# Entry
Amino acid sequence: MSGQWQVAVDRDRCIGSGLCAGTAPAHFALVDKKSTPLHPLVDPDEAVTDAADCCPVEAILITDPTTGTTLAPL
Amino acid sequence: MSTDSELKPARTYPFGDPDRLNLNPIYEQLRRTEPLTRVRLPYGEEAWLATRYDDVRTVLGDARFSRAASVGRDEPRTHPHQGDSGMLAMDPPEHSRLRKLIAKAFTARRVETLRPRTQEIANQLLDDMERHGSPADLVEHFATPLPVTVICELLGVPFADRDRFQLWSEAIISTTSLTPQQIMEYLGNLHAYIAGLIAQRRERETDDLLGAMVKARDEDNDRLTETELVQLSAGLLAAGHETTVTQLPNFVYVLLTNPDRFAELRADPSLVPAAVDELMRYVPLGTAAAFARYATEDVMLGDVLVRAGEPVLGALASANRDDKVFDHPDELDFHRESNPHIGFGHGPHHCVGAQLARMELQVALQTLVTRFPNLQLAVAEEELPWKKGMLVRGLKELPVRW
# Structure
C-alpha cells in the first residue's frame, strides 16, 4: 500500500465515545463532542484503521481513494 | 494556578458509604469550588480526583493520560488486591490490538440483530414471572436471567453453568464483599472454566464469539496470546452480565420511586430509548471513581497543573451531573435535546458492551412497562437490601407487585 488513505466520519452516526480520538489522536479530534478527522487524506497508519475497527457505531470509513476499496472497518 | 500537589491536604475518599443511588452532595460542591482535589483512598498512593465533565473527559479520553502507566504503581483503590486488569491496563496501540478483535461483535449494527432474540427471552421470563404470581423478585426472575442468557448465547457459554460462573464473576466487581483469597480463587476457577470451553472449540469449531476469538488466535499467534484469550473471554462473560444485571434493577427502582416518570413511559413507550440514556446519566452505577489514569507529561486541567506521573481519578457520576453541560442536572428528564453523558465511560476504554447494554435495557424497560403497567414496589423503600463491598451500587433483591 503506497498511496494515501481517505478518512471520513459520519457525524450523524457518531455517538462521541472518544474511542477514535483516544486511539489515534493524530488523526481524530472531538469537535462539539463528535468525531472529526484532522486530515481527509493520511499516510497509511495502523492507528487510523484501529480507530475505525474499534468504533462502536462504525461511523468511521477508511478507503483507498484510487480504487474506492474499503480498508476499515472490515 | 496551583502547581504543588503536596501543599493541599488530601481528602479521604470515597466520601462515605454509598447511600442507595444518591450521589454525595460534596461532588457538586467540588465541581464549583475545587474541581481537581487531592484524595487518599484506603489503599494505594494519593491521587487527584476530577469532578467536572470537561476534565473527566480529558482524563479518560486524552492520550496524555495512560492506564498502562498504572502497571507497577501502587494504584489508588478501595480494596486490598491489585489485580491484573487486562485490557484496562493497556493503552493504544496495544489495547487496540485486542479491542478490535471483539469490537465488531458489539457494534450497534450487530447488536440490532440480537434484538428479536432478546425480546423473545424477555417475553418468556415475564411469562414465567406472571405464572409465579405477584409479588416476585425482579432481580431473580428478570434482571439476572435476561443479560446472562444474552451474553451466554453471544459468547457460546452454556447457560446451564450459570450458577458456577455467576458466583465466580463477582470477583471482578468485588471490593471487600469477597476476601482477596476468594477473589483469586474465583478468578482462577473462571479462567479454568473458560480454558475448557476454548479447548472444546479447538476440537470442533463453533460460530459464536468464543469460537471466533479462538480462530483469530490460532490463525495468527501475534494477534493475542493464550493468556489474553482466556482473560479476555472471562472478562466478557463476567463484565457482560454483572453490569446490566445490576443496572436494570437500579433503573426499575428509580422508575418505581419516581412514579410520574414510570407513568410517562407507560403512556409513551417510544420514550424508552431516551429514558435508558437518561437513566445511564442519572444513576451512579459505580460506588466511587476507579481505575486512575496516569499523566505521561505535565498537563493543565483547568487551573491545576497535573505533573507527569501523577494519577487522576475521573468521577463519571459527578461529570454526568455537571450543570455546565446538563440543564437541571439532578432531574430525571426523558426529553433532553442532547445527552452526551459518560455513563459508559469515554475514550479508548469506553464500554465495549455499551450498545449491547443499551439494547438489553431498552427491551427490558419497554416490555416491563407494557406488560406490567401497574408495577410497584412490594416492600417499603427503606426495606430494600443494597449490596455492599462492590465496585457497583445495586440491589440484592427488588420485590415487586402488579
About this structure: Chain B touches chain A through 27 residues (CB under 8 Å). Chain B has 15 helices and eleven strands. The radius of gyration of chain B is 21 Å. The mean pLDDT of chain B is 95.
